From TrEMBL:
SMART domains in the cross-refs: S_TKc
Name the UniProt record assigns to this protein: non-specific serine/threonine protein kinase
GO MF terms held by the record: ATP binding; protein serine/threonine kinase activity
Single GO BP term: regulation of mitotic cell cycle
Binding-site residues, ATP: 137-145, 160, 223, 230
Protein species of origin: Gouania willdenowi (Blunt-snouted clingfish)
GO cellular component terms, A-Z: cytoplasm
Keywords recorded for this protein, A-Z: ATP-binding, Kinase, Nucleotide-binding, Phosphoprotein, Serine/threonine-protein kinase, Transferase
E.C. number: 2.7.11.1
Enzyme class: transferase
Residue ranges annotated for the Protein kinase domain, each copy included: 131-393
């Protein structure tokens, strides 16, 4: 009996005496004990098996050595040198591979930082053992999103299935190394401030838990707050009558999250009701930004093609075929706010044609916030930090009840 088995037996005996198990072995220790005993048996079996094989091999080699001529022995010595060289090369290859894995492994973010944008797991069996899917949350051209739980602690999760042909990749550089990463996962992680050192933590971005690269699809496993829904369904649940003070709370968090995303160098590019989760956190409304499938890193030069919801595209992308990150985010925040109260779905082209009267059911500060976000000229639009200081988000506006709010 080796030290590992002795230690396990001592632990079982201690628990039986101290915790009064009355002769029964705790279930977790039973499993552990079984594993230890199985490992011990396998080790002994290997010793017997390989010991027998090695002894036979040595005897056969000794017999052959006695019968070999001198010329054959020279050839065998050369063969042994060749085999030895091959073993050395294989060992070096394994060493290099191990170093590569270790360098990639330095990017693993453990449980308290739920993101792993570069290390990709490939075993479907491992996914099924760790997670359970039970209903569909949504579907689109990108694939589908399923609701599920993590089996170990019943944590609610959302699992995004993306066909291999629709997956985008990007190079992620860290600590002098470059890695190929799934773009959406890497952007999500960095938007939350979890990928690069010196980034700002952003708790209003959905957390990334796992990433699986299977034969035909990519699985992105994300957190799913309890009792959460996107803003579109939240508006429907409230029958189109969301009080202004609740809308202000949501948009204050949304603007703060957008500021942090841009500080971390990430451009979401598709801010809309379907991509903003609303949920109750200790009795207060909280938000999480989801779906970075249309996102990109922030660049100094203008973007020349638009990826996102066309109805929320900024005017400059339609007129000049180029746009910048921050003015676009500001425009989309204003478009989302107006879309909550307009009778028809917001469309940039229709808004540019006008007229766009203020909403009588909203306070003057709220209308002013909306109009500033929806300034046609991108150079005259406020910056995100200026939106944070807007009187509507900073002060207590006079609330007016809106009789009907249309999505």
């Amino acid at each position: 009996m080796n030290s590992k088995m002795k230690k396990c037996f001592r632990r079982v005996h201690h628990m039986m005496v101290e915790e009064n198990h009355k002769g029964s072995i705790p279930l977790n220790l039973t499993g552990h004990l079984a594993v230890v005993i199985t490992e011990e048996k396998e080790r002994k079996a290997k010793e017997v098996l390989f010991g027998t094989m090695n002894s036979r091999k040595r005897r056969a080699e000794d017999e052959l050595e006695d019968e070999r001529p001198s010329k054959r022995s020279c050839m065998d010595s050369r063969n042994r040198e060749v085999r030895k060289t091959r073993k050395i090369l294989k060992a070096r290859k394994r060493s290099v591979h191990k170093k590569e894995l270790q360098s990639v492994g330095s990017l693993v973010c453990y449980e308290k930082y739920p993101t792993c944008p570069v290390i990709i797991k490939k075993a479907k069996k491992e996914f099924k053992e760790k997670y359970c899917e039970f209903k569909k949350l949504g579907e689109g051209g990108f694939g589908s999103v399923m609701a599920g739980i993590r089996r170990s602690d019943s944590k609610p999760v959302a699992i995004k299935h993306i066909p291999k042909g629709l997956v985008r990749y990007m190079l992620v550089k860290r600590q002098g190394y470059k890695y190929k990463a799934v773009t959406e996962a890497a952007l999500m992680a960095q938007a939350a401030g979890l990928l690069y050192d010196g980034s700002v933590a952003n708790h209003s971005v959905i957390g990334l838990l796992d990433l699986y690269q299977l034969r035909t699809e990519i699985l992105i496993v994300m957190e799913r707050p309890l009792k959460s829904m996107d803003m579109r369904n939240f508006n429907i649940l409230r029958e189109g009558r969301i009080p202004e003070h609740e809308v202000k709370s949501i948009f204050k968090q949304l603007v703060d999250a957008a500021v942090l995303m841009h500080e971390n160098g990430i451009f979401h590019r598709d801010i809309k009701a379907e991509n903003v989760l609303v949920y109750l956190d200790q009795g207060n409304l909280s938000v999480k930004i989801i779906d970075f499938g249309c996102g990109d890193i922030i660049k100094n030069e203008p973007y020349t093609w638009f990826s996102g919801t066309v109805n929320f595209a900024p005017p400059e992308s339609l007129l000049q075929r180029q746009y910048y990150a921050e003015p676009t985010t500001v425009w989309q925040i204003g478009a989302l706010l107006r879309n909550l109260y307009a009778e028809k779905t917001f469309k940039t082209r229709k808004y540019m044609e006008g007229p766009n009267p203020p909403f009588d059911c909203l306070s003057h500060e709220c209308n002013d916030f909306m109009n500033q976000c929806l300034t046609i000229s991108p150079k005259q639009r406020p910056q995100l930090v200026e939106l944070q200081r807007h009187p509507w988000l900073m002060g207590n506006s006079i609330l007016k009840k809106c009789l009907k709010v249309w999505l």
